[in-house]
Predict the structure.
Amino acid sequence: MDKLYSPNTIRKIKEKHGFRLSKSLGQNFLTDANIVNKIIEGSAIGQDDLVVEIGPGIGVLTAAAASYAGKVVAVEIDSHLIPILEETLAEYNNISILHADILKTDLIKVLEQYKEINGKPRTGVKVIGNLPYYITTPIIMKLLEDAVPVDSITIMMQKEVADRIKSGPGTKAYGALSVAVQYYCTVASVASVPKEVFVPQPKVDSAVIRLDLRKEKAVKLTSESVFFAVVKNGFGQRRKTLLNSLTGVMGKTKEEISKALTEAGIDPIRRAETLSIEEFASLSNIIAKK
Ligand code: SAM
């Protein structure tokens, strides 16, 4: 089989199968062996690990992952890519292709099927993918909110989204997504990726980050739903003071929010973007108790 990261291979596959790249499915295929290696190395796949790949495309990451993992399950939505993947990955006996929408897939159930790999208990579950940009955030949040038992998620996304996920308080990129992801995970940068390494070329640069799921969440919460309501409302109107943006959250009056802020030691005229995750936690714990 030709090298799957070669633009020439992509062209040949398109011709042979009459395949047309779909913009609406976010199909920008990776054509750089170096970046493929960085994603695989960054995800630290072990030989008895289960790898779940989101959106295999023509299988460039899938093939690389299969050389290291016990088992790879690749979830691809595009029916036209299924026969292509069966061809490009024919030499591997440890890959299963699942024709499905990742957002509608019960991953917990999928993981149950592979508790053992080659007769041995699996050691870990690693998620990898060059994500379709149009649903990057929903995919990450689904994995985290559904508590899918994975060890890490190593994924390529638009640089701007990676920056938002990594940022801390006091920066422009810091927002509800940063707090939500950092609540569940620690975040590590794996690679910066220029737009030139994709076919077709997207408009923006990308980045690969690894999310390592925390054994204990970043903060202790009385109520996750109150915490996320506070975060969402705080950043929903990020130019407003917390006193104004949070009035009405959980049905609380301005006076009640003012009291909660004071009790948490937070000046009511501060804005959400200045609050650390610990401050969001103590404020939401006070609101949840009242
Ligand atoms: N992994 C390949 C690579 O790096 O060259 C392809 C990456 S491409 C950016 C995104 C892939 O995700 C495409 O193959 C696309 O068809 C697939 N995809 C898009 N939406 C999906 C969904 N909801 N569920 C599963 N796969 C999806």
The domain at 224-289 is CATH 1.10.8.100 (Helicase, Ruva Protein; domain 3).
